[in-house]
Design goal:
The protein has 15 helices and 11 strands. The protein has about 300 residues and is α/β, with parallel strands linked by helices. β1 and β2 form a beta hairpin.
Amino acid sequence: MLDYPALAAVSAVVREGSFERAADALGITPSAVSQRVRGLEERLGTVLVVRAQPCEPTETGRALCAHFDQVRLLEADLAPHLTPQLRKGEAPLTLKVAVNSDSLTTWFPDAAALFVETSGTLLDLIVDDEAHTADRLRSGEVAAVITSDPEPIQGCSTIELGALRYRACASPEFFARHFAEGVDARSLAAAPTLRYDRRDAVQARWAAEFHAVKLSAPTHWVPSTQGFLDFTARGIGWGMHPEPLALPHIASGQLKELPPGEALEVSLYWTVTRLQAGALRALTDAVRKASGAVLQKPRSQRSAST
């Protein structure tokens, strides 16, 4: 049998990034945290935590943390059947979810509001590119992800949510300066573009899909969805913006579409562990409801209706 108080200490160190912060979270001393972690490592005969800044789990440590999170999820379903004495001192349940920045800025807050309204569960969100969030689920780091990767993951269920549309936009001044003679390979190669980070391929996808251009342009790196919008409005570069954010600025004249009507769709999926926990079911319901109000219908449903 695993020593769950010790496992809770390992999980806290990994989550908080240090023994000191883990001690604060658990309400014990750093020495006690260290003793619990070291004791579990000695009993299992392997290192569980890499002592660094921040602390990182080893492969075994990550697997044990994922197991501990699953146990906590299942225990939460038992709470209504337990006496107040048994529930006393129990930390609130926290769900770890990986989500892309554009979903976090558009529709996911509505899902979170629906979820926490009734569940009393906390959320620990990790922001990553939608093409890579699924890797965090495969590693056991999170319990669910918003992803653009439809590939099945063992032990998980995948639900197609719909597509987030993106519009290629620039400020009117930037457009006049760089695209007065048209949007083509030459102008796209010269006009500065914006990218969220090195994993952001949305601008390149749009250029390839609509203009058959392999995008290679001067690039500003702006790791913030709101910052991305602000940089575009200030005429610093052009970029792809989620339609729910872009349309009001296009309507007001603050932004101009490069060529109107060339909306790129990024299909999004909700992939979640199949663990039969009430919190996961509630979050899944909230995600489906909130995404359905903003995203374009899944392609499968659009095909069926035509």
